[in-house]
Design brief:
The complex is a heterodimer of chains A (288) and B (262). With 288 residues, chain A is α/β, with parallel strands linked by helices. Chain A folds into 2 domains: 194 residues, 3-Layer(aba) Sandwich (Rossmann fold); 61 residues. Chain A contains 10 helices and 10 strands. In chain A, the strands form 2 sheets. Chain A has a 6-stranded mixed beta sheet with strand order 2-3-4-1-5-6, sandwiched between helices. In chain A, strand 3, helix 6 and strand 4 form a beta-alpha-beta unit. Chain B is mainly α and 262 residues long. Chain B is built from 12 helices and 2 strands. The longest helix of chain B is centred in the middle third of the chain and has 32 residues. Chain B is globular, with a radius of gyration of 19 Å. Chain B starts with a helix and ends in a 7-residue tail after the last helix. The chains are: A alpha/beta (288), B mainly alpha (262). The interface between A and B is medium-sized, with 37 and 29 residues.
Chain lengths: 288, 262
């Protein structure tokens, strides 16, 4: 990692993304005090993480999608008791907190099952409860939805947004799943080769980088379109067309007018290209 | 920071409860213990009888109690603890422990100690029954009472030393060879196979000043009928030294932990 500089405001939901080996997990491990950087500085909630790690862990929650912090032979409730002792949470407060988290994560009935018998999705909800037990102000999530099925992912993302809305918990998330970024984050920081190569709101990234629109047309009869500057025919059959329009040199309206004038159109949709494609373009930017 | 007084008892209780929920594992450990301890004590009893009834100051009855307790103190531990802890360090799994406001090594030792307790309890009860049936009542009941806390201290000393050694994985990434050597030192210099009084004098002198005697010899000598409470002080002293060593190694190691990727 080199020359990475950014700051995150309280209550923000930030996606910190990059290709494999870009330094995402390394950054999180430095910000949580696990790794010591060779140079440079960082503060989290006013603390230098690698010097004040134990004090900082009282104020942050960390979830590694690929490493469990639950004890597999115990039930989550027993683990919470253990964590309660570590975080110095007294008995009545711990019971209240576990009850609140059970309701928030819809996981109360899971807390008495042995961890080894939980599905991955159920376990991740319990993992989240474990890292929220001490009411952290900042939540670091390193690929939290990895391995989850679609429904479990969806539910997990909704939980994060709800948690942020209800408790103003700052969320700092790494993920390779574009939907995590789209549905959870408000801001995206992209790193590659150990450097920040993009930092903006997710909506702004879409606007700024989506210079193309995808036009999909359903036809009742085949049609041959004359070549148009800034328009690429991505797919064509007798009953459908897919066009990619470069809006910088041709407005979408021109394309729609041409289509409606020449073809017998039964349906038409105009969409942005997938965010995945946008991110891939950012990743491919040359190293500065 | 939360003090160990708060979390250590919970960690010990919780781990002990987990271990007790594995009756199959306990039964295997108990069977292994009963076989090995019985073979060792039988060998030494036979040797004692052929040497006029006493070897290195121990009678056949004393050596029977000696070996059942020496073996219990060592069998209670996971024999591959150094390897397991070393692998956790080398793989980066230890990072999860570092996310809590508690000493990483303290937490690990407390958890392992709790895990050892059911095994230690079962082995001690079985060993006492077998020793009584084979050779008769304990030589000195008061000494046997002293052997009980000595067993607990023996396990703690062993765990602290193993974690200090396993911490080398922060630098060398592979503590497996250290485990092999360490185990042999406990067997020989810890007097699990031979009472240190039966070793050549020069080796006896070396064993006396090393911490391995606290891990098997002390509870075994007490169970053999020697009312020597100063041996408990020796264990406490070594426990303090070994804990400081383990904490120092982990503190230094955590500063240079290398974890790559998720």
């Amino acid at each position: 990692m080199r020359d990475i500089t950014f700051s995150v405001e309280p209550g923000e939901r930030v996606a910190y993304i990059g290709p494999n080996g870009a330094g995402k997990s390394t950054s999180i491990k430095m910000l949580t005090g696990i790794l010591h950087p060779t140079s440079g500085s960082a503060t989290v909630l006013g603390r230098l993480p690698w010097r004040e790690r134990r004090a900082l862990t009282r104020q942050i929650g960390t979830l590694f999608g690929q490493r469990s912090q639950l004890w597999f032979e115990l039930t989550p409730r027993e683990t919470f008791r253990m964590l309660g002792a570590i975080y110095d949470i007294d008995g009545p407060r711990l019971r209240t907190r576990v009850g609140e988290l059970g309701a928030l994560l819809d996981a109360d009935e899971l807390f008495d099952e042995p961890v080894r018998s939980l599905s991955l999705g159920q376990r991740m909800r319990c993992e989240l409860a474990a890292c929220l037990l001490h009411e952290p102000s900042v939540l670091f999530l390193d690929e939290p939805t990895i391995g989850l099925d679609l429904l479990a992912k969806q539910r997990f993302r909704e939980l994060l947004v709800r948690l942020n809305g209800e408790r103003a918990t700052t969320i700092f998330l790494t993920s390779h799943d574009v939907s995590d970024i789209e549905q959870v984050a408000e801001r995206v920081i992209v790193i590659n080769h150990g450097q920040v190569i993009y930092d903006d709101r997710v909506a702004a990234m879409r606007r700024e980088l989506l210079a193309t629109k995808v036009v999909e047309v359903a036809l009742s009869a085949p049609v041959t379109l004359a070549p148009m500057q800034g328009v690429i025919v991505a797919a064509a059959t007798s009953s459908a067309l897919q066009l990619v329009v470069d809006t910088a040199c041709r407005p979408v309206r021109d394309v729609l007018d041409a289509l409606l004038g020449k073809a017998d159109v039964t349906d038409i949709t105009v969409t942005d290209p997938p965010l995945e494609q946008v991110i891939a373009e950012i990743y491919e930017r040359p190293r500065t | 920071m939360t003090t160990a007084r708060t979390w250590a008892p919970v960690a010990v209780r919780s781990a002990a409860r987990r271990a007790a929920r594995d009756p199959g594992g306990l039964a295997v450990s108990a069977a292994f213990y009963a076989i090995v301890a019985s073979v060792l004590s039988t060998l030494w009893r036979t040797a004692t009888h052929s040497h006029g009834g006493v070897i290195a100051g121990y009678t056949a009855v004393q050596l029977t109690w000696y070996f059942y307790f020496a073996e219990a103190a060592v069998t209670a531990l996971n024999p591959r603890q150094i390897e397991i802890t070393g692998d956790d360090i080398a793989s980066g799994a230890v990072a999860v422990d570092m996310l809590r406001p508690a000493s990483v090594v303290g937490m690990r030792i407390a958890t392992e100690f709790g895990r050892c307790l059911p095994r230690l309890g079962v082995c001690t009860v079985i060993g006492s029954v077998l020793a009584w049936l084979i050779s008769g009542a304990p030589p000195r009941p008061v000494a046997l009472l002293l052997a009980v806390p000595a067993l607990l201290l023996a396990v703690l000393c062993n765990l602290a030393a193993q974690h200090a050694v396993a911490g080398s994985a922060f630098w060398v990434r592979d503590a497996r060879s250290a485990w092999f050597l360490y185990q042999k030192l406990v067997f020989l210099l810890g007097a699990m196979l031979i009472p240190i009084e039966a070793l050549p004098l020069w080796l006896h002198r070396i064993a006396e000043v090393l911490p391995f005697v606290t891990m098997a010899y002390v509870p075994a000598r007490l169970a053999a009928g020697h009312v020597e409470p100063q041996l408990l002080l020796l264990q406490l002293g070594w426990l303090a030294v070994l804990m400081v060593a383990a904490v120092t190694v982990f503190d230094a190691g955590e500063r240079r932990l290398q974890v790559v990727g998720g």
